[in-house]
Amino acid sequence: MAIRKIREIGDPVLNKVCKPVLEVTPRIRQLIDDMLETMYEANGVGLAAPQVGILKRIVVIDVTPEGEDPLVLINPKILETDGEQTGEEGCLSVPGKFGTVTRPSYVKVSACNEQLQRFEIEGRDLLARALCHEIDHLEGHLYTEIAEGPLMTVAPPEEEEE
Fold it and tell me: Among residues 50, 58, 72, 78, which is most buried (max CB within 10 A)?
């Protein structure tokens, strides 16, 4: 596995629509492993393939506090949404910033696993937000396009006194 460079806002690859994955090759498996490692290294809860410069419809998500339950979604598609939640959202491709975004509070997504077998997953709250956010990346969209008001700067962590 390897840490990949995360593309940042302004990089044209982030505004392109991704292509479906038709076959899971060893290169695709390596990409998924690298995406998971990159996401965990960057302390993210999700990462989409275009964020590491690959225009494929692949996302990885892990909303667990311990990073123990990674989801791999190939060719994901939102089937159903319900409700509404408004909250702070950030992105590994927009470092040091966050914005207020309204998303569905519930989503149902159809996707393929690493054997290209279709499955459905339902998400609420943070998982619903992450699913919508990452699937937006596959369509060439960043949360900054739907943020309500100006983006805020993340305050640097305070130094602990010894």
Answer: 58
Active site members: 134
Distance, in Å, from the CA atom of 111 to the CA atom of 23, rounded to the nearest integer, reads 14
Answer whether residue 23 shows pLDDT above 70: yes
Half-sphere exposure of 96 (CA within 13 A, CB side): 4
- pLDDT tens for each residue of 44-86: 999 999 999 999 999 999 999 888 889 999 999 999 999 999 9
Q: What total number of domains does the chain contain?
A: 1
Range of the domain at 128: 12-153
Residue 63's closest CA among 44, 78, 35, 83?
44
CB 56 within 8 A of CB 16: no
Is the pTM higher than 0.90? yes
Position 3 in a domain: no
Task: Look at residue 93 and tell me if it is in a domain.
Answer: yes
* C-beta separation of 22 from 75 below 8 A: no
Average pLDDT, the chain: 94
- CATH code of residue 118: 3.90.45.10
136 in any annotated domain: yes
